[in-house]
Amino acid sequence: MLTATSKKKAVLYRMVMKDHICPFGLKSLDLLKREGYEVEDHWLRTREETNSFQKEHGVETTPQTFINDARIGGNDDLRRFLGKDVRDPQATSYRPILTVFVTTALMSVAANWASGSIMTVRVFEWFIAFSMCVLAILKLRDLESFSNMFLGYDLLARRWVGYAYLYPFGEALAGVLMVAGALVWLSAPIAFFIGAVGSWSVYQAVYIEKRELKCACVGGDSNVPLGVVSLTENLMMVAMALWMITKAVAL
After folding, report:
1. Strand 9-15 versus strand 64-67 pairing type
2. Which residues of 147-166 are buried (b: 16+ CB within 10 A; e: fewer)?
3. Are 81 and 4 in contact (CB under 8 A)?
4. How far, in Å, CA of 106 to CA of 125, rounded?
5. What would the pLDDT profile of 186-224 be if each residue is shown by its tens digit?
6. 14 in Cβ contact with 43 (< 8 Å)
7. Which of 223, 196, 199, 197 is nearest to 212 (CA)?
8. 209: which residues sit within 8 A by CB, 6+ positions away?
């Protein structure tokens, strides 16, 4: 029986053309080398050569890896053979939104550091404002896709479809103004409104209706599950709005 501990020699066929170098072929080559295999690397330099190879071996895709004269398959098949995880493109994950929050948190600390301090209240203000800006960018990257997913759960957007298109612009505007600490009379109400509506919409869909949906918070092509993280994003906007109003009144 063939195992990953067999003789460390592999044969790889991958597309290396003038106008296209297969990324999965490069990943397979890199993985085999990291696993200690001596790789016989065959380049498929034309579409005709690639088609001929696929027809000969009865496969529809490249790259294709062979170990001990047995065909292992493509990059995902190779990863499974070597005991590596294979990403499920349909699987839900909080990674996209957590990546945004971690990055904007570091940006906030860095911006505050540049102004002469490390940790002040301004760090938390910038964190929320930067997060709003980045999340707005991700939504605006494909506004149609965002609106399609957003309409699945936002209560106001269901009544007025135009709100689904305005939401990212409002989030971006409020975020930019909050970074500058300017026009609180405009930024705070916008953030409070979209945060409050969003919070209730998420709560209604997830905790009352018990629906399993994906969140449009990082754009309409994400697999982030609608739930506590989505609710947190909206509550952060509400909290930031109230904080900015409190500061403005105190001054």
Report:
1. antiparallel
2. bebbebbbebbeeeeebbee
3. yes
4. 13
5. 999 999 999 999 999 999 999 999 999 999 999 988 889
6. yes
7. 223
8. none
